[in-house]
Amino acid sequence: MGAFDEEWAQLQAAAREEQISASRHVSGAGGANDRLAASSDAQRAAADYLETELLPDARREGNLPVDELSRASARMSGWACATGLRTVSDGWAGKVELLTAQLRAEAEALRGVSTGFAGGELETTYQFGQLGSLADGTW
User: Fold this and answer.
1) Confidence of residue 87 (pLDDT cuts 50, 70, 90)
2) Model confidence, pTM
3) Secondary structure (3-state) at 133
4) What separation in angstroms does the CA of 61 have from each of 64, 71, 77?
5) Are 125 and 109 in contact (CB under 8 A)?
6) What is the pLDDT of residues 88-102, one digit of tens each?
7) Nearest alpha carbon to residue 50 among 105, 94, 116, 125
8) Distance from C-alpha of 73 to C-alpha of 66, rounded to nearest angstrom
9) Are 55 and 101 in contact (CB under 8 A)?
10) Are 92 and 51 in contact (CB under 8 A)?
11) Which pLDDT belongs to residue 132?
12) Cα–Cα distance, 85 to 71 (Å, whole number)
């Protein structure tokens, strides 16, 4: 085997070892550092927070500049800058709508993932039960 082949084999072995080490760290026993753990309750709580706290606040705070710009535009009626203020106000209002739509979508996604995880857990439990009945010969 040539020098290149030996070096390539060593690099591949090191990469495999790094992958194995990383997967052991991620799929550990659910310790405090396990970031992949999912809790349906936590996801529902986050969705509730988005819908009841963050969304109304974002809408209210986002509309403050729209109201101010609308009043300023009305005061400058007849001036060329009034049109510019209305344009900026309309653009800002559109961005507020996009933000609130994104927050609603995130809340719905959190609820969907939570439901999906629960369904997946039930399906996995059922499949394991089927495997157990196969092993027992009771199928």
Assistant:
1) very high
2) 0.55
3) helix
4) 5, 16, 25
5) no
6) 999 999 999 999 999
7) 105
8) 10
9) no
10) no
11) 64
12) 10
